[in-house]
Structure formats: C-alpha cells, structure tokens
C-alpha cells in the first residue's frame, strides 16, 4: 500500500508548559493540512501550550511505501532523514552526503521522499541540513519526528473520538487478528533553548541561579522550580516544601507533560524515542515491566531502560496497563536521571477503572476527556455516585497535599465509604485497591523491618567521607551499624519467587537537612520506599506522591506498612526514596531486593548461617547449581569530603545542578591517586594488592569453578557508567542461550542487570566502571577465586570441597610482583598457534586532512610494521588482529616507551580533565588486555591486578600472553591497563576479532593474505565472502591543530556558537573523537566554506578523513564496532539506509539501524541485512555516524560507506 | 551403487521402538513419584504419575517452578521430556520442596 503525507518544516513558538516557558525559535515538522491551523493557534495563544504543537508522528504498515512531499519553510536547507527505512540514497536520504545528490530542500522549495517500511518499529526522522549542536541547530529546536510502522493490516483511530487520524502522538491500533492496543509516543528531547514568560532564562527559586537545562517529552516539561514558586507565593499547599509534591495533582492539577490514558488491562505499546541531542536518559515506568526485546520472549525483563540520542525502543507492558495485579491510578513515567526528573522530564500513565465518556471531571473540576474503550476489551463500568472510579473516590483536598493512604500508616485512619466501595475484598495495609499477593494461593509471607537513618559514611582508608550519609537499614542492624560494629553498605534484601513481601518502614531521619557547600538547607521531612519490579497497589504503596494517588510516604517517627508480591524470579529490584531524592539519594539512600528461584536458601558466605540480607551471600538451591551472589550499587554525585573536611569537587554554589561530588560503589571508592606505593610510583601497579594492598571496595570471594551471579545497579544520580569484568563474560540476555556474550554493560540510574558467569580459573579478576574518571576515582574491585580452602569462605554445597590449603595466602609486600614463571594456556595442546609480535611506541599521529594531530601518540603495532610507521611509510592506525575459533594466540608485547616523550612529565594530566586531579606520573610500562576470549587471569589478562603476577612490560622488555579463542565472540576490545591517565588519550587501544573456525583474511585492495588491519575480506568455506570493517569509536583524544594549539573539544568544534558558557560541558565531555585515530570536525569544513548544507558533501569538501568503507552493491558486510577509549558520555551509532539484528547471534532479535549506549568496553557485530546498499542494493554514499548531535557529529564522529555499482580499478570485487 | 533395499523403511523404526519403550516405562511406573525436566516452561515437574494416555504422561504436580501452576494434573508429552527420575524405593528419594522451608 502506498501512503502519502505532505510534511512542512516550519518555524514555531513552542510553549512547553502552563507556566509559559517557551522556545521562541522552535522548529517542527507538521502535516500540510495542519500548518495554517497550528500557526493560527500559536498566534492566538502565545503563552499556553497548543496541542497541535507536538512532534510529528505519522503511521504506516509493514510493507507500505510511504511518499513524503516535503516542503521547507525554515531559513536554511533542511530534510527528513529516516532511520530503519529502505530508500534510494540519491533521492530520499534527506541529507547531502559524499557524492550523492543533495536531497536537502532549500527554503521555500519542495521535494518527494520515497521510502519503504520493511519491518515494524519506529522510523525516527530528523534534519541533517543544520547539524549544529548550539542553540541555532535544528534538532535541538525540535526538528524531529517519527513514523510508527505497525503490523501489516493494521488501522488506527483517535482514542478520544474513535474517528480516523492522519497523525498524532496517541492512537488506538486495531488489527483483524491481533488485540487492539493503545499506542503512545514518548519522545524524549533535551537542551531545547528555553526562556520563561518574561523572556529571560528560567531561574531556580531556591538558588536564584539558572535552572537545569531543558529535558522534555513531546515538547512539554513540568519543572519542579515552577511549581515550587506557587508554594512559595502561598498559592497552594503552604505547609509543603516542593519536591515532595512535585508530581502531586491534588496540589497543582495535572502537568503539561504527557498523560497516557487507558483502562486497566488495556494492551499498550509505548514507543520510546530519543529525539534529543546529548544525554543518554533512563526511561522508568512505575508498576510495569517489559521485555528488553519485544520480539524475543527469552530476553531480559526491564522496568527501567537507558536510551541514547536518535535511538528508540518499544515498551509492551506485561499484562497490559496496571500489570498482573490490575493496579489502577497514576503510574508516573520519567527519566530517572534525577536532575532531569526534577526539571520536568516526567509524565504519567493514568489507568482508569470506570468509563470516561467526557462527562466526568477530576477533583479540581477539570473535565476528563472521553476515552474510547478498545473494541475487543470488556467495556469498563460507568461511574456511579457510590463507585465514581479513580480518582474520585479518594478523599483529597484540592490545593493541599495528597491524602495519606488508608490502613497503611501505623496508628493511621481506616477507609471511607467511597474507599470501601472501591477496595479489594480483603483490604489491608499496602494492598487496598489491588491485591498483588492474591495471585498465589497462600503465598509465603516475608516481613522486613526497615528504617532510614542518617549517619557518617567513610568511603576509603584516606578518610573520604560523607558526614550526612542517608541509608536504608534493617531495624535489627541499626545499633550495630551506628556503633561501628557493622560496616554500612546498601541494604540488599533477599527473598524467593512467590513471596509476599511485607515491609514495616520507619522514617528516622531528621526533619531538616542542614545546608553545606554542596546543598542548601532542605526540609526533607517525608520519605518513602519506592520499589521497582515487584507487584503492588500503586495508589497506596508506591512510596511516592504522584498524580491523583495517595501520598504513600511517611513523616519522621512514623511507620508505614507496604506489601509487594515477587511473582517470579527477578533480577535485583531497585528501591529508593521518591519524595526528596534530589536531596538525599546521592547520600546513599538506595538499596535492592533480590528475588531468587523458589526453594533457594541464602547463607552467610563466611559462617554458613542462613541470612536474608547482605550484598554478598551464598545461594544454595536443590534444582540448579549453587551460586555466589554479589550486588554492586554504583553512584555518582557522592557528596564527600576528605579527612580534613575539605569538600571534593564541590559545586560552584550549593544546590547547583552541575555534577557535584565524586563516586562510590557500595559506599566505597579506591582512587588510583592513592595507589602509587611502588618504588617508582609506577601507575602500572595501581591495581596490585602486593604493592598497595587490597582495595576497600567489594571483593567477591569464591572458589575456582564457582557459579557467580553479579547484580549490577546504579543508585544515584545522573551519569552513565560502564561496568566491565576482566576475564569473565556472560550472555547478554540471561534467559536466552542464543544471545551474544558480553563482558561490559552500560548502566544508568535505576537500571538493574544480573550477570551469570563462573570463575573458570583461580586468581583475581578485576571488575571496573571503566571510563577514565570513574576508574581514576576508585570504582573498581576484585573477584577473588581461591584454588585452595580458606577458613572465611564456605564451599558451595553441590561442588566437591576445595583442596586443603598448602600455600599461605599472599600478602601486601609493597613491592611489584614477579612475572609468572609459566604462562598457562587455556587452549588444548593441539590448538593451532598464532603468534603476534607486538610493539608499543610513541609516534605523532595525524588525525585529519586539516592537520589535527596528536604529537605524543602511543600506538600498538606489529613489530614488522614498526620501522615503516616510524619512517612515515605507513600511517599509524589502531592495531586490529584476528584469530579463529580453536586458535591459540601467543602475544609477545614489547614496550619502547620513553618517559621523556610523554606530554606531562610532572604527573599532572590537564586535558582532557577528570574530577579530583592529582599526581600520577606517566608509566613507561605497557600491557594489552583483551575482552571476551579465554585465558588464565593470573598470566594473560594484560594487567597486574590483586595478587596476580606482573603482566606488564617495561622499556625494552617483552611480556607474553596466551589467549584461546574458544568461541566466535567477534569484536573484542584490547587496551592498555598500565596507566589509564597518561596512555589512553594517546591511543593505547586496538581490537581483537574472534572469527569463525576456518576463516582466512585478505586485504580488500591487494587481495593478499593479512593478519591485521581494520578492513579485510573474510573468506570462510561455510559462509559468504564478506567485507569486514572495524570501526573503533574513540573519545577523549588530546589533539593539536596545525598551529600546534591545543584543540579543546567539544567547545572548539561547536558550530554557530554565540557565546561560550563556562559550564557548558562536563569533565567527561572533553576530548576529541572520531573513528580509528581519525576525525572529521565540521568546524574545519565550515571555516573553509560557511554553508551548512554542504558540510557532509564530498563534492564540496572531498571525502572525510575518517575511514572510507568501500564495497560493491550487494556485497555482504559486517561492521565490527567498539569503543575501547575513555569518556563517560555515551554515544550512539547509526548507518544510513541499512539495518541489522540487534543481537547478531540471535536471528529473532529486533531489527534496528542503530546501536545505543556506546561507552568504554562496548562491542557489537553488525552484519548488515541484504549487504551493501541494503534491500534494493543501491549504490551511493551512506553516512555512518553518532546519533549525538551534541557533541559528536560536529566533532568528527562520522564517515562514509561508499557502495559502487560499477567495478573500480582500485577495488577488486568479491569472488563468488 | 546402493540397492533399493537401502531405501526401504522398516517399521517399526528404531525411533518408534525407543518411543514405545519410554511410554511403557512410564506406564509401568504409574503411582510413583517422578521429577521431570522439560525444555519448555515451566521446565520442572515433581509429582505422582497418575496415568499414561497415548504418549502423554499425566502427573499430579505438587511442585513446579512457580506456585500458581502446582496442585493440578499436568499432561506432559513424553517426548518433550529431557530428563526424568522416578522413585523406585531403592534409589534416593525426591526431596519435598516447600516455600519458606
């Protein structure tokens, strides 16, 4: 079927909320038939949100051809670049890339884009005519939208009228064979230039400084700061403080941000789209859970999920709206990054239990819009006086805080008559209007007494501390923890599947939190325990104060009773406070529950006594292997002081939103600046317990061969982190054995992951939050696998007991360990051996045609290439080596590093910066750590960790590693682990590609066999001959321009920047970036020719410096994508006109044209569907790029895949 | 050269015999307690064998992976069973598994 839309790009004033915050220079796509109407409405209502001012969402079915007549009314050339779609890049790319025809449209002109939708999902579209990240860019101002592609045969109607719709954020989708469902667009976007009603930048009424930048959904946001002004002025709720009522509709009425409406049980899909430019957000949806990959029923279950710019995913909540327990009420949906949440990035899912025909009102008199029941669902009952339905049975008072729930608070009230009529058959504390524990017959009840307390937390041996730590504790532990007999750690409670959990929750916090250098005085008088994953009654048990629900928090000295049901085995579930989280979550107020398989017993790993809490326990289960269970909770914005009381990384002023403080993991950190105890202060031994002792951060103790479950959560507050375990790996989707192996995981606040693995060898495994600033500030620890019995660790009951101890345990000596006497090999004795003689040396690296270079570069290279590189016959590039499954790999690595060739000999590395700068002199040692493949951790991990032997090489020394390729894991990062401060920015990384057995590799231009290189032809007798392109996305490089001036990216590369805001960038945004030691910064092109629409054109500027990927149409292509570099800002990756399975090992995984969440340690293998030129095998230039307009694209993270239709002299075709 | 006899399928095939023996084995064990593992949800069954109908074994399931599916008869396709053990009075007893024990 062909569908036709006439879309116009227009300038428009976007009013973002009822307080009149607006973007005077907004831009949007709109259907032609709505253009005049929307302009008229905006003119008539300049200070109110106009419904039609919304991101354009249009729809089509799988298999449809979609024709877009595109018209541009903006004062620069624009276009519509579609992700996921098949199209002719010469006519419908909506861009001006390489040697393609220009498919942008000048002001006042039109063009016709033709695309085909061959798979379901979100076809995000945005402009590439103006890629500036500054306030003058197009994307930042709203020029994005989406085409939602449905199952073949679907139709859609307006949820209010039931009539047909051409576009719109919300629709009811119908299908002859499938259930109807509610479809909601949830389009995150950030950094939109915003002023308040007076035309000035909005201020925070508490600090009187500018508030956090705009973080919005669907062109709407509802900042705390605006609502707080109404309290301060005495308009509403004079006894309130602010944050505790931020989401309270009883006080303020409904927010301007999206309210997704439905009836309890309605099937629904929320299409989460990131149309913004910069941040990786964390989508969290109270009450509900969903599959990570909706096409794969074996995929992981999420209830909080990160999303990077220009990416998307679908959320299909299990059991429909209200989940299994049929919860009615307001389930808040928000970005969990707390500063974003506070500034308004939230909305709600409103779940009604009675029919809404448009005649009802909310308690404040606002009319409730009609909502058509889905045609194949039972019609909800009409409201009556006795049973008015949500929210009209709740005894609240408009203008005042939401009422407390009935029954919940000890000593509190009972039910009103209306509440009784709305209640379940057996109402009790925490389960009044839904009964989650009724799912099972007489489930086991597990009761916990939990309090929140304030106490000092000591983060490390150097005395870094948070004097105002706030934590959850079991009541029976309060005395021991406060007396120092028990070390504080995040509260981790354990239970088994099928348990009804009851919590008696007591607020023991002071009414007021004192002010200090980090935060102003705050009246944090309420606290709640908001839970993820488990089933509960959202009205009374959310531990929050949302919409027209009850306020289910508790005042100081009071106890509230909560009830949840853990229906199945789950990952660790996150809990935290939802009332004053912006004040005290980063002080440690978070914890987790772990739902184990039924019949599991949890034991203290030392004594063997049964326990029900603890971050590290041993689990024994009669049907599955016993396991060690470790929970790690990372957090940023840790507001800590040194032992002398000096604040660490204090903000410019108290309560500033600019990333204050440092980091912790389970309330501990082990900064590398304090681990220079070797005789020459050599950073190469910073992770060595021989030299510096064990870290204070968690060490998971186990025996060789033990099964492990690592629970990974982030407790606070705003930033992305990258978790890695060196030497272990796990299945990405834990329930799915077909999913790929990973050894790294991007994480944002509130996300939860469980990694199942086992300690194959004895020794010390390093776990890290691997980005430079995290690792530098101490986010790392160990997994210690013993080969012989120790008296502080019980053996797993279902395994043979470990041998008796014959050797004393190693101890800290202050001296570097010796190298291993024997390099153990994981390979069988008959494995084919591949040897690589690798050298590391210093050499200037030219990064672009514009003369940008790193004068102090350090590269890994094959020894045979070293002279050619040094003499300039060969360009330095990241070392990329390959071996096949079954191969043993022997690496001989030699260091030729020279101390005097480092840029900062005084040991202070100024740029790119990190928080908490300190002395850390350059190491002349080097190492090479690989991901995912198999090796003995004690000899071949390429790092000197714990009580393992030395695995690094000093100048003119050679270290040997033996690796075994036991699995076709594809892309593996490789990097140096001797000195993360002085080496990584200079290029000490590469890649190892684990190919299928029997693969041979050839140079794509000479067809000669090769054993290294970013671009090869891979030939395997059982697989198609394929072009393989390795793209190493790096960040954090330190470059100079041709005048030898330091390039301070991203600021130096920003297009159309009017003024430089000193606080524009965070530490981890700094550094230059691109692919494979190359970059193509747009500022150079713009300086040469100031025409935005030509920035990606090779006709105008020649080809970019980044790798040119060349192929013939239809050639099978695999892209190996990785990021082994250093910065914490997550990137996305997108290739125009192509798509692939999100998991290359799982054919049922979702098809996508992007990869999200790219940070240190990320790897992916992208076999392109249909090969070069995609479905239609069309020639042309296809741009590959980051999805981050701010600050990747301008700064050089883009390149071209060139697909030819005619034979080129320089590029031999693939042999059939 | 293969001769035509190589292509003649002899009935019952070795697979038929294998299947039939499994069915007979379960028929002989009616009334005994079994633990059965399957590759599909809910993966594990513990209970007394009630009867065998064609190639289905009917089990009065007292324990499986989630409690909502217990205390009912399950019809399990014998050829989907990956692993089983039936108490015969001589070997080890199947443990009683109860929540909260």
What can you tell me about this protein's structure?
The complex is a heterodimer of chains A (1216) and B (101). Chain A has 1216 residues and is mainly beta. Among the domains of chain A are: 2-221 and 257-352, Immunoglobulin-like (Sandwich), CATH 2.60.40.420; 439-614, Immunoglobulin-like (Sandwich). Chain A has 16 helices and 66 strands. In chain A, the strands form 16 sheets. In chain A, strands 10, 11, 12, 13, 15 and 20 form a six-stranded mixed sheet that branches. The longest helix of chain A is centred in the N-terminal third of the chain and has 13 residues, at 32-44. Chain A is globular and about 85 Å long. The mean pLDDT of chain A is 97. Chain B has a five-stranded antiparallel sheet. The mean pLDDT of chain B is 91. The relative contact order of chain B is 0.18. Chain B has a domain at 31-90: Roll (SH3 type barrels). Chain B has one helix and five strands. With 101 residues, chain B is α+β, with helices and mostly antiparallel strands. The A-B interface holds A 439-441, 443-444, 446, 496-499, 567-568, 597-599, 622-623 and B 44, 65-68, 71, 95, 97-101.
């Amino acid at each position: 079927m062909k569908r036709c839309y006439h879309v116009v790009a227009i300038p428009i004033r976007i009013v973002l909320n009822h307080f009149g915050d607006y973007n005077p220079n907004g831009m949007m796509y709109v259907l032609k038939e709505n253009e005049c109407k929307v302009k008229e409405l905006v003119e008539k209502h300049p200070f109110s949100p106009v419904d039609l001012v919304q991101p354009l969402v249009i729809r089509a079915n799988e298999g449809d051809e979609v024709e877009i007549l595109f018209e541009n009314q903006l004062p620069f050339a624009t276009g519509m670049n579609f992700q996921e779609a098949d199209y002719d890049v010469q006519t419908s790319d909506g861009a001006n890339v390489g040697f393609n025809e220009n498919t942008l449209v000048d002001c006042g002109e039109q063009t016709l884009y033709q695309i085909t939708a061959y798979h379901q999902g979100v076809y995000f579209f945005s402009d590439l005519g103006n890629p500036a990240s500054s306030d003058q860019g197009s994307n930042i101002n709203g020029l994005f939208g989406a085409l939602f592609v449905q199952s073949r045969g679907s139709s859609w109607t307006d949820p209010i009228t039931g009539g047909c719709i051409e576009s719109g954020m919300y629709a009811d989708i119908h299908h002859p064979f499938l259930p109807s469902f509610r479809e909601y667009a949830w389009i995150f976007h950030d950094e939109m230039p915003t002023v308040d009603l007076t035309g000035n930048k909005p201020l925070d009424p508490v600090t009187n400084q500018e508030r956090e930048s705009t973080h919005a959904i669907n062109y709407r946001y509802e900042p705390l700061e605006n609502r707080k002004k109404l309290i301060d002025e005495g308009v509403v709720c004079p006894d309130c403080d602010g944050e505790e009522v931020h989401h309270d509709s009883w006080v303020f009425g409904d927010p301007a941000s999206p309210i997704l409406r439905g009836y309890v049980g309605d099937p629904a899909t929320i299409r989460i789209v990131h149309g913004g430019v910069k941040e990786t957000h964390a989508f969290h949806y109270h009450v509900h859970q969903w599959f990570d990959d909706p096409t794969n029923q074996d995929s992981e279950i999420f209830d909080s999920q990160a999303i990077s710019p220009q990416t998307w995913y679908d959320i299909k909540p299990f059991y429909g709206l209200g989940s299994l327990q049929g919860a009615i009420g307001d389930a808040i949906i928000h970005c969990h990054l707390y500063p974003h949440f506070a500034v308004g990035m939230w909305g709600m899912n409103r779940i009604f239990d009675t029919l809404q025909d448009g005649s009802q009102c909310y308690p404040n008199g606002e009319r409730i819009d009609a909502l058509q029941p889905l045609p194949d669902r039972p019609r909800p009952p009409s409201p009556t006086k006795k049973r008015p339905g949500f929210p009209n049975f709740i005894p609240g008072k408009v203008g005042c805080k939401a009422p407390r729930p009935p029954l919940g608070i000890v000593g509190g009230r009972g039910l009103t008559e209306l509440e009784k009529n709305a209640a379940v058959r057996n109402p009790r504390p925490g389960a009044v209007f839904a009964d989650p524990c009724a799912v099972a017959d007489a489930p086991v009840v597990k009761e916990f007494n939990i309090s929140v307390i304030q106490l000092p937390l000591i983060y490390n041996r150097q005395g870094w501390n948070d004097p105002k730590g706030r934590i959850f504790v079991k009541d029976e532990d309060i005395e021991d923890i406060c007396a120092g007999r028990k070390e504080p750690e995040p509260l981790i409670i354990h239970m088994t599947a099928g348990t009804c959990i009851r919590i008696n929750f007591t607020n023991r916090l002071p009414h007021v939190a004192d002010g200090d250098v980090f935060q102003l005085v705050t009246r944090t008088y309420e606290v709640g325990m908001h839970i993820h994953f488990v089933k509960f009654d959202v009205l009374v048990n959310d531990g929050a104060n949302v919409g027209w629900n009850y306020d289910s928090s508790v005042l100081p000295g009071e106890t509230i009773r909560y009830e949840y049901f853990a229906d199945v085995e789950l990952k660790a579930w996150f809990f935290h406070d939802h009332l004053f989280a912006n004040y005290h979550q980063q002080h440690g107020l978070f914890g987790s529950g772990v739902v184990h398989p039924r019949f599991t017993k949890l034991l203290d790993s030392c004594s063997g006594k049964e326990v029900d809490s603890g971050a590290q326990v041993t689990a024994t289960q009669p049907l599955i292997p016993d396991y060690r269970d470790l929970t790690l909770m990372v957090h940023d914005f840790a507001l800590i002081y040194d032992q002398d009381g000096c604040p660490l990384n204090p903000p410019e002023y108290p309560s500033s939103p600019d990333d204050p403080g440092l980091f912790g993991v389970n309330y501990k950190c082990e900064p590398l600046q304090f681990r220079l105890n070797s005789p020459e202060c050599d950073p190469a031994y910073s992770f060595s317990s021989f030299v510096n002792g064990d870290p204070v951060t968690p060490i998971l103790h186990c025996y060789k061969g033990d099964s492990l479950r690592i629970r990974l959560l982030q407790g606070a507050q705003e930033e992305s982190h990258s978790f890695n375990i060196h030497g272990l790996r796990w299945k990405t989707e834990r329930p799915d054995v077909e999913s790929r192996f990973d050894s790294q995981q991007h994480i944002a606040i509130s996300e939860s992951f469980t990694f199942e693995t086992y300690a194959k060898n004895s020794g010390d495994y390093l776990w890290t939050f691997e980005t430079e600033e995290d690792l530098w500030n101490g986010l790392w620890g160990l997994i210690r696998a013993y080969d012989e019995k120790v008296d502080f660790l019980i053996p797993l009951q279902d395994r043979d007991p470990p041998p008796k101890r014959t050797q004393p345990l190693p101890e800290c000596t202050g001296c570097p360990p010796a190298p291993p006497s024997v390099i153990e090999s994981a390979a069988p004795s008959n494995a084919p051996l591949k040897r690589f003689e690798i050298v590391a040396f210093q050499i200037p690296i030219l990064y672009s045609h514009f003369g940008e270079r790193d004068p102090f570069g350090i590269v890994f290279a094959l020894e045979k290439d070293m002279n050619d590189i040094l003499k300039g016959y060969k360009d330095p590039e990241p070392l990329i080596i390959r071996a096949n499954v079954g191969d043993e790999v022997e690496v001989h690595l030699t260091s030729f590093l020279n101390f005097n060739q480092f840029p900062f000999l005084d040991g202070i590395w100024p740029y790119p910066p990190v928080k908490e700068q300190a002395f850390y002199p350059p190491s002349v040692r080097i190492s090479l750590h690989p991901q995912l493949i198999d090796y003995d951790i004690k000899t071949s991990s390429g790092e000197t960790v714990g009580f393992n032997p030395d695995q690094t090489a000093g100048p003119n020394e050679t270290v040997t590693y033996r690796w075994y390729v036991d699995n076709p894991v594809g892309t593996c990062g490789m990097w140096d682990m001797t000195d993360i401060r002085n080496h990584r920015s200079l290029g000490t990384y590469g890649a190892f590609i684990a190919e299928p057995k029997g693969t041979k590799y050839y140079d794509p231009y000479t067809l000669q066999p090769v054993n290294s290189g970013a671009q090869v032809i891979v030939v395997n007798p059982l697989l198609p001959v394929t072009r393989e392109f390795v793209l190493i996305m790096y960040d954090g490089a330190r470059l100079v321009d041709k005048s030898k001036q330091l390039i301070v990216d991203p600021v130096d590369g920003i297009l159309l920047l009017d003024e430089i805001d000193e606080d524009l960038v965070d530490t981890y945004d700094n550094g230059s970036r691109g692919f494979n030691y190359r970059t193509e910064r747009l500022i150079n092109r713009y300086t040469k020719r100031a025409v935005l629409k030509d920035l990606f054109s090779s006709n105008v500027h020649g080809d970019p410096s980044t790798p040119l990927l060349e192929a013939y149409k239809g050639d099978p292509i695999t892209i190996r994508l990785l990021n082994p570099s250093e910065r914490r800002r997550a990137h996305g990756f997108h290739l125009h006109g192509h798509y692939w399975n999100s998991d290359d090992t799982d054919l049922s995984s979702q098809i996508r044209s992007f990869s999200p969440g790219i940070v240190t340690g990320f790897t992916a293998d992208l076999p392109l569907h249909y090969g070069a030129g995609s479905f239609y095998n069309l020639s042309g230039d296809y741009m590959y790029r980051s999805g981050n307009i701010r600050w990747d694209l301008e700064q050089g993270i883009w390149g071209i895949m060139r697909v030819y239709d005619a034979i080129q002299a320089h590029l031999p075709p693939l042999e059939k | 050269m293969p001769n035509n006899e190589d292509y003649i399928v002899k009935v019952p095939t070795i697979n038929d015999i294998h299947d039939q023996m499994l069915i007979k084995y379960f028929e002989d064990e009616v009334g005994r307690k079994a633990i059965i593992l399957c590759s599909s949800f809910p993966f594990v069954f513990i209970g007394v064998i009630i009867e065998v109908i064609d190639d289905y074994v009917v089990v009065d399931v007292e324990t499986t992976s989630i409690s909502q599916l217990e205390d009912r008869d399950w019809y399990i396709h014998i050829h989907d069973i990956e692993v089983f053990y039936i108490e015969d009075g001589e070997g080890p007893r199947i443990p009683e598994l109860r929540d909260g024990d």
